[in-house]
Design a protein that fits this description.
Layout (H helix, E strand, L loop, with lengths): L1 H24 L5 H7 L1 E5 L8 E2 H10 L5 E9 L2 E2 L6 E6 L2 E7 L14 E13 L1 H10 L4 H5 L5 E14 L15
Parallel strand pairs: 2-3, 6-8
Antiparallel strand pairs: 1-8, 3-7, 4-5, 5-6, 7-8
Length: about 180
């Protein structure tokens, strides 16, 4: 009798495992889900409709003056990332690069996201960046002490503050959580 019970138990265990394996091998995925799974979502949610290319944003920056701001969704490539936290990125826009920060430090992007595609939702603007801030960015980017010391003048910067970002999905994204302020 014991052998019969053990045999029945083993039989149901094998059937259960076999059915579970089949479910894992054949997930039902439609085209919309595949597109959604292609990106990792950071910050505020937004649709990826009406997105312009980074080259178009570069042309927009050329017509802007310091202090001008425009709301935009832009798609580009992450050229540099803050190696300390992922708290800023640089994105090529035409023949220049824009420095992208994240609204209220509410989220960061993967520190190992260089070369990945990104879609940003936020505001593009030109501003004047002081020497100390430029040096800080250079240190965060891992520049040498000599390169940091060579920064002696403020510069007009192409800037972007993103409230949301979609980053091309990849294995092992290295992201630190934003520091939460106590209420």
């Amino acid at each position: 009798m014991k052998q019969f019970i053990i045999a029945v138990f083993a039989f149901f265990l094998l059937i259960g495992c076999k059915e579970q394996k089949q479910e894992e091998e054949m997930p039902a995925i439609n085209d919309e889900q595949v597109q959604e799974m292609a990106f990792m979502d950071y910050g505020a949610e937004f649709s990826n409709n009406d997105v312009i290319d980074a080259m178009e944003l570069g042309a927009m920056y050329k017509t802007m003056k310091v202090g001008d701001t425009t709301a935009v969704k832009v798609k580009g490539i992450i050229a540099e990332v803050c190696v300390n936290k992922g708290c800023w990125i640089k994105m090529p826009v035409g023949d220049a690069s824009a420095t992208v920060k994240f609204k209220d430090y509410g989220f960061f992007l993967p520190k190992n996201g260089q070369g990945k595609e990104v879609i940003l939702n936020g505001k593009a603007f030109k501003n004047i960046t002081p020497v100390e801030e430029l040096r800080h960015y250079a240190e965060d980017a891992g520049k040498s002490k000599e390169e940091v010391a060579a920064i002696t003048e403020e510069e007009v910067t192409l800037s972007f503050v993103a409230d949301g970002a979609l980053v091309e999905k990849f294995d092992n994204p290295d992201v630190e959580e934003a520091a939460k302020t106590e209420e």
